[in-house]
Every structure is written in structure tokens, then in C-alpha cells.
């Protein structure tokens, strides 16, 4: 890994997601010994990725295990794919350039779509639609986390939820994740806001633990807010904020 200090700093997300090759990871481990900023951001990315995977995870149906075990005898085993030696250098360069999006998509999609293949024939179009929507979410989230300028901030709401916001000026987007968010109650929902110099602008809804891309323009926003609103949301906050978290610079 031949990078100066600034270049090495941009690899922190790939390191946290396990997307560096052995040589690069060894060099980056050495870099972490002297860079407090990268150590802190690596820990934040690892924690955020774990929350994202848990937030979009879908439990398989009860019959999934029995169906898989019954189908094993009829599945032909294939030999492992071994790339040709001449293709390794070029492939390595491609993987390094795409390391973060691929690693994030693989890690989060594994949790989100683990049971899709088993029960796809039973659910048909509904399952395909769910898979497409999940993939779109993963693509949007991965673009923010993979951005070289991605920054992370953590917080806790007044009702005890653990929250994370990852922003990217380059992508002009922000990702919000909540864990341990209590149920909002019948006819209520949680609403996100972007604070623009004291003016709260709607930024999307979140009903339970999960991950969402904030709507609106976070470029000039100073903070992210969370309130409890009537179902469907409100044009302006109607309750005191449960959270008002300053966005990372």
C-alpha cells in the first residue's frame, strides 16, 4: 500500500469493512499505530456497519431449514473457482478501487437477504420487489459510507435509543441509524428533521430500529432532529425533540 498519510486516511472505511488485501491491511495496521483519527474512525465505521446489518436483517421463514435440508441431496457440488494467475494483478486493482461498496453490499446484504433464495418460489413477485427495494437501500447507504469524506457522529435520544449519523459532503447525503428505539405507539411515528439555522425541515420517517437515508439537503444543515409525530408525519415539529444531534463537520 503506497499511500501518503492523506491517502491512507481515505482507506479507513475499507479497513473497517475488511475490504483491504493482506498487504494493505498490514500496512494500514502500522498506520493506525500513529494515527488517532483513523483509529477512532475505524471503530466508528465498524460499529455503524454492525448496526446497519442488524437494522435491515430479515429472519428466514420457519420452514426454511427443512426446505434447505430436503434440497441438499439434489444440488450438484461445483469445484471452487480459481482465477488464472495472469488475471490476478488486474483484478486486484479493480477490487481495491471498488473495495468499500462491494464489501458493504456483501456484508449487509448477507444479513438482509439470507433467506431470499430458499423461499423465492413461494413468494414470487412480492419477494422480488422486496429484494429490489433492499438492494436500492444498500446501494444508497453504501455510497455514503464508501465516500472518502464520510464522517460519523453518535448520539442517544431522550427515550434511550442509540443513534448514528454518517454524512458525506461529496454525496450530499446523510444516513441515520437507530437502535433500541421504543415503539412509537398507535397512530404515531418518529420523524427526522434537518436543522437549517433554527428552521426544522422534514427529513423522513422511521417507525422502529432501522436505517434510512435522510431526505432533503444536508449540506447547510447543522443538526439532525428526531421527534414523535402523528402517523404520516408533520410539516413542522409538534413535540419537543427527542434528539438534536450536531452533524459532523
Throw out a few tags for this protein.
single chain; 249 residues; alpha+beta; 4-stranded antiparallel β-sheet; 8 strands; disordered N terminus
How much strand content do the residues show?
A: 15-25%
Fraction of helical residues? 40-55%
Order the strands across the largest sheet as they lie in space.
1-2-3-6
| Count of all domains | 2
Low-confidence stretches: 1-6, 86-121
Summarize model confidence as the mean pLDDT: 74
What gross morphology would you assign? Answer: flat
| Separate helix tally | 8
Distance between the termini: 28 Å
* SS-derived structural category: alpha+beta
Biggest sheet record: 4 strands, antiparallel
| Computed CA radius of gyration, to the nearest angstrom | 21 Å
Let me know the number of strands. Answer: 8
The topology string of helices and strands comes to HHHHHHHHEEEEEEEE
